[in-house]
Known about the structure:
A: alpha/beta, six-stranded mixed sheet, four-stranded mixed sheet, 11 helices, B: alpha/beta
Amino acid sequence: MMSDRYRIIHCLNQFFGGLGGETEAGLAPVLQKGSRGPGQLLERLFPGAEIAATLICGDNYMATNTETALEEALSLLAPYFTGAEAERPSLLMAGPAFAAGRYGIACGAICQAIAERFGIPALTGMFPENPAVSLYRKEVLIVRTAQDVMGMEAALRDMASLAGKLLRREEILPEQDNYLVQGRRRNVFDPETGARRAVRMLLQKMRHEPFVSEYAMPTFDRVTPAAPVADMGKVRLALVTSGGIVPQGNPDRIQAASAQSFGTYPLKGLSALSSVTHQSVHGGYDPTWANADPNRVLPLDAVRELETEGAFGSLHEFYYATVGNATSVAMARSFGREIAQRLLADGVQAVILTST
Amino acid sequence: MVKEIERAGIPVVHACSIVPISLTVGSNRILPTIAIPHPFGDPEMGLAEEKGLRRALVEKGLKALATGIEGQTVFS
């Protein structure tokens, strides 16, 4: 029986699902009836849609136990797909996750799994730099969103519009429906032959005029692995972290999210980090354990022990730290370049870079 | 950051808890760690045991730095 009302499953993390902040990031999937948080706005922006249930999962749980978490989520959802046809949800929406990496992974993974297991369309929304985009863009429809929650309404509007088209089985296109290119080819008729279009493009190129290629080349930014350390006994090793470990008081005021800088901090004379000397300023994970013992993120105590035993030559007398939390790729690249220059100047030959 | 350091010719091991992200971004030597909020530790353990775990991870990292690789390698 067809009806104009669409039943939707919405998927959120613990934060948007209203179950808590970072302290609840380890939460296993739970299913709640009706809409939660952004789902309520989504229902207002999407006439005819009714959120049957909201699946909520902790960021850490989903990002680090993805396989188990997915199985648990799918078992929770199974009863919705074994009922009468009219009761079956017709679509799953996840997020939007904006630039949040762990949340992005959860959204991508659940969309892919639900489509495979239950055969319904699924979509999510992310900022194009979200690391989950390159993991899931081929299989999952990902609406392009702003970097953070300021773009919630626009994101939900675009997601609702794309969902409506999917449900009505209308044609969709990345440019007009604002989703990220999936790399699919499709036959279309063009009034001009390929030869004419190609020659026009060539002429534009020769005149240094702007033109848009019909075949976007993928850009792979890969770096050749550096040669291994030849003599561990002599190597000068440095520590770098994106885990937000800084001296107490955060002297450089490194931001908890979208960091604009990195800090250079001394290690000379320090045999370990402690809650007295250092802290975490990372806004993307619960810092309780890192604050209690910062060696859990920047393992100075173990590194010093191994240095004393001669497992490697010597530790560089500074470490470099920033916060990798929704930090833009351009920013991370510039931090990396600058740190690399300093390391080279100081004769550092190997690096352990820790991330949370 | 990992890539820019490596581009400068310095071998770097990326110690992280979400390996798929590290692979996607393009790290070459990847060391999977314990958990997002405590990559080099486990608060459930006693202090001595936790320190041993941390030390073992760092040793693995050093080993990765001394290992020649052709392409992306996860040192699990």
